[in-house]
Amino acid sequence: MPILSSLICALSITGAVGSSVPKAKQFSQEFRDNYSILKHYGGNGPYSERRSDGIARDPPASCAVDQVIMIKRHGERYPSPALGAGIESTLSKFDPKITYTGDLSFFNDWSYYVPNKCLYNAETSSGPYAGLLDGYTHGTEYRDRYGHLWDGDAIVPMWSSGYGRVIETARKFGEGFFGYNYSTNAALNIISESERMGANSLTPVCYADRDTATCDGLTNTMPQFKVAAERLNAQNPELKLNETDVYYLMSMASFELNARASSEWINVFTQDEWVSFGYVQDLNYYYCAGPGDKSMSAVGSVYANASLTLLNEGPEKTSPLFFNFAHDTNITPILAALGLLTPDEDLPLDRIPFGNPYSTSDIVPQGGHFTIERLSCDKTAASEAGSYVRLVLNEAVVPFNKCTSGPGYSCPLEEYSTIVKGILPDYVGQCKVPHKDPKSLKFWWNYNSTTELNYRNGSVPCQEAEAER
């Protein structure tokens, strides 16, 4: 044996070089398919955090958050009545007298998770992904993260659009954030969803003719859905499923997770089929409520412009906390207005563009939220002291339009303001807001501070009404 090899062997035995027992790796080197069903059902199913760019969620050591502006989608819910009707139509093709086999063998003991039609559209209250639990848990997490912005004594307003499940999410979030003091220190303001609210709304609309040609022409079928239908029909010849039925069954599966701990329907469909389903959702959001409809940037400019005013006024003139609650299709226009996650080219209709930044399950899952942080930072070797802005989508920091010179890849407030002012369209002019309707968002500066709406009086009826104002 060579002298050097003999020396290494001896040192290894004595422990001078290291133990002869192999050690586990500190870091796994496996980054394989990054696949999760939670990223392929669009906006239908339970909340999951956004896949990040690797930027730390906590503020940089030289900075502290001094103002937060958040808008949150309601928590997990049951399907809408329209989707429910499609699901029920497909389920009617299943004969209860037949014993199903293959991928559908579980169906013999399965029951639909919506026990009463009046629960359609309602927020779920059962299962580990329940919508009401989502709201409460989010509130507790933000109390831990932003609790330093509340002195424990001040009355803090919150704003909810006027739809039942949105209001209930706001209430649960408030209970989580304020704890025992929710009944006395939160002041819930409910903003009507009427289109006549104009710009003074969390749910503004475009009065002008919209760019809906592509949206109107979208279908909910993909080639993979036909393959799935043929596979299930072959396993159970009594079935006569088609592509549309597969779409409804996959929708049903993703919504089932909102009410139950698991869904056996998930495994009925292949990974290719779920990827296709997720892209169908991406297309619908992109062309119907996102940057693919050119009017949506104007709609989103209402919130983006008003939040810019808050950031420049700062917490001393207004408030450090602005918690808002609305719908998925009220968040996507804001992102479009700010130019966030907009692809360089419109999404193709004939293929799936892998690497697509407009992944709906990362943008507006149930309970999804968009948070704007104002940072107060000390001077460092790399940056000046001052105010900076960070954008956070579903708890992942999203760099703003190449403006990343601040600590933690934030954007200096002055530069952020210049960029935003330069890209925001004119909502009033482009959307042709009627003369009598409000032309700007005012409720952040003109709000009630009573606790009258913190809780609903009386029982909550099964069917949610839009008109709790």
Textual characterization of the structure:
The chain has 469 residues and is an alpha/beta fold. It has a single domain, classed as Rossmann fold (3-Layer(aba) Sandwich), CATH 3.40.50.1240. It contains 14 helices and eight strands. The protein has helices at 3-14, 81-91, 131-146, 164-178, 182-185, 213-217, 223-235, 243-259, 271-289, 295-317, 328-338, 360-363, 413-423, 427-430, and strands at residues 63-73, 156-161, 186-191, 321-326, 369-377, 386-393, 396-397, 411-412. Strands 1, 2, 3, 4, 5, 6, 7 and 8 form an eight-stranded mixed β-sheet that branches. Strand 6 and strand 7 form a beta hairpin. The longest helix has 23 residues, at 295-317. The N and C termini lie far apart (87 Å). Mean pLDDT is 93; it is low at 10-14 and 464-469.
